[in-house]
Specification:
Strand order of the largest sheet: 3-2-1-4-6-7-5
CATH architecture: 3-Layer(aba) Sandwich
Largest sheet: 7 strands, mixed
Bound molecules: uridine 5'-triphosphate
CATH class: Alpha Beta
Number of domains: 1
Number of strands: 7
CATH topology: Carbamate kinase
Shape: globular
Number of helices: 9
Strand content: 5-15%
Structural class: alpha/beta
Distance between the termini: 18 Å
Amino acid sequence: MRVIVSVGGSVLAPDLDSKRVEAYADCVETLRSAGHEIGLVVGGGRVAREYIETGRDLGGNEMALDQLGIGVTRLNARLLIAALGDAAAPTPPESYETAAAALRRTEIPVMGGMVPGQTTDAVGAALAETVDAELLVYATSVSGVYSDDPEKSADATRYEELATTDLVDIIGGIELSAGSNAPVDILAAKIIQRSETRTIVLDGTDPDAVRRAIDAGEHDGTEIVP
Ligand code: UTP
């Protein structure tokens, strides 16, 4: 199966720990040995937020801050590339077509951010659409899509399954209420909707959860179906 896995920076590199990155690389190699084609996207995590806050204190505008964030996502991508060795394309692709070409050469593309005004959630959705992936997995620090912010509301329930259209409605509602955290960004939700990509949002703290979702179809997250 051709799968794009978008690994949140807070999952891959909450702090700089080679063991965590290695565990993700091992998981990807296991999936490849099982016959899956894997493309990866990596987020920025805490380090990106610290750069962005520092840049904001220095008076940087939002475009400049996004560029700082993109820089950090690409650094994190390079950590995963280092762990994957020859199996990965040597640099984070800076276009979707370059990533698709790597996949055709049976290399693993590991992308970071692309352009200001979005997050790597949208990169994952766009890469999945570019390569006609059968599955897109968001390995996040939250265990799926909830009816409300699970950290703020005790009544928040996790959706086991959602239609792509409902995802767009839910994310749109969350993003309107200031301060709350959306599980994926609105552009990602829209791309998933138009490309009709089957998508799973799960807690990726343990990379084996990603392996089980892809290889055995078992997970405790939210499945988004066209
Ligand atoms: P992330 O994708 O990690 O953002 O990119 P996030 O969702 O805020 O982080 P997590 O999932 O909680 O860890 C980090 C930052 O990089 C910039 C944005 O500023 C984003 O917040 N970025 C990233 C872009 O501007 N464009 C991109 O394509 C990707």
